[in-house]
Amino acid sequence: MPVKRIGISTGGGDCAGLNAVIRAVVLTALNQFQWEVIGIEDGYDGLLNDHCRRLDYKDVRGILSLGGTILGTTNRGNPFRYPTKVNDHVVMVDRSDELIQKIHSLGLDALVVIGGDGSLRIALELIAKGVKLVGVPKTIDNDIEGTDMTFGFDTALSIATDAIDRLHTTAESHHRVMIVEVMGRTAGWIALHAGLAGSAHAILIPEIPFRYEPICDMILARTKYGRRFSIIVVAEGAMPLGGEAVYRDKIANRLGGIGQVVADEIANRTGKETRVTVLGHIQRGGSPTAFDRLLATRFGAAAVHLIAREQFGQMVALQGSRLTHLPIAKAVERLKLVPVDGELAQTARDTGVVFGDEAVFDETMLDATSQARRAHDLRDSGAFDTNRQNP
């Protein structure tokens, strides 16, 4: 049966670039295939609560550069485990059959599901029940397997890097240790990329449990050589060796607070004034970067073409500079985490970044500026004479 009408939904946490995908899906469907597009509001909830509307040219005009999503989103609308109040108690009810019936009643021939691993796992369950759909990977965490990048990551990275740049000046002016806590859940992609781009002196990520000793040694060594400030980027899922992750709300599985824990420990051990900045949802908002606008647009158009070729159950992906696709089942097998022996982590080590897993802090790991300051101080102290001939 030829496709005539498709649905599109955005689920999970918001991020920059969602509107760019919506726009690309609508324009490609209308221009190339003359399909009707139905926007499903607030993720899968829109189907269950009859919050759906037709999307036309006028609905996507001017939204390419807008953050957020014109369709709304939620990370609590799992139709297979839907919270429902029964006799004054909230119980989880399977409403998936009801949702599928809504799909049929709307005459939707296929769905474009834009989401992270949670939304895509739900999509996989719907596929098993006969729903025709394709996936578009979305998350600032960049932790979806099979794609080198998810849209939203580059914008979050740019925001985090800009914040680190700004904190450098105040940290140096006040001779403080600045802790920057960034998002990422159990993956350290934002922390590692932003830490490297922002010239952080230590980066703490979930993939590498840390010890405080090498971090504090680094801070004290920098102070000794005249660099009286330090910048430390901490992923929200980072944890000390032998310890546990820190949660703002453990019941809701919301990470947060590790930055303050690290700051308190560093202040106690070093005596340095230590401050914390938690970027939080600032990383999700605002206008998408040019990279995310382009990637989201490419993903949206590619998703429509997957439907046209009846390649259902697939997720669009970026591998290198090339767009491709892979089964959603493959994409959600596991989270894509930072390889601890990968090129990026090694580059950080090569340039003197401390991860906290070092047995001891080697002063040769100090950055070039600190090394130059050290040499200057030694010359001024008369420790060696550059004009003296060797005996």
Measure the end-to-end span. Answer: 91 Å
Count the helices. How many? 13
Overall CATH class of the largest domain: Alpha Beta
Describe the main β-sheet briefly. 5 strands, mixed
Unreliable parts = 381-391
What is the topology, as strand order, of the major beta sheet? 3-2-1-6-7
Helix/strand-derived class?
alpha/beta
Counting DSSP E segments of at least 2 residues, the number of strands comes to 15
Q: How many structural domains in the coordinates?
A: 2
Order of helices and strands: EHEHEHEEHEHEHEHEHEEEHEHEEHHH
The oligomeric state is single chain
Overall morphology: elongated
Helical residue percent? 25-40%
CATH architect. name of the largest domain: 3-Layer(aba) Sandwich
CATH level 3 topology of the largest domain:
Rossmann fold
Strand residue content: 15-25%
Please tag this protein with its features.
391 residues, alpha/beta, Rossmann fold, 2 domains, five-stranded mixed sheet, 15 strands, elongated, disordered C terminus
Structure overview:
- The chain is elongated, with a radius of gyration of 25 Å.
- Residues 381-391 have low confidence and may be disordered.
- Strands 3-2-1-6-7 form a 5-stranded mixed β-sheet, with helices on both faces. Strands 9-10-8-13 form a 4-stranded parallel β-sheet, sandwiched between helices. A two-stranded antiparallel ribbon has the order 4-5.
- It contains 13 helices and 15 strands.
- The protein folds into 2 domains: 5-151 and 288-331, Rossmann fold, CATH 3.40.50; 156-284 and 354-378, 3-Layer(aba) Sandwich (Rossmann fold).
- With 391 residues, the chain is α/β, with parallel strands linked by helices.
- Helix content is 38%, strand content 19%.
- α1 (18-33) packs across α10 (290-308), α6 (153-174) packs across α7 and α8 (212-224) packs across α9.
- The chain has helices at 18-33, 45-48, 57-60, 96-105, 117-128, 153-174, 189-197, 212-224, 258-270, 290-308, 328-331, 343-350, 368-381, and strands spanning 5-10, 36-40, 52-55, 82-86, 89-93, 110-115, 133-137, 177-182, 202-204, 230-235, 247-249, 254-255, 274-278, 314-319, 322-327.
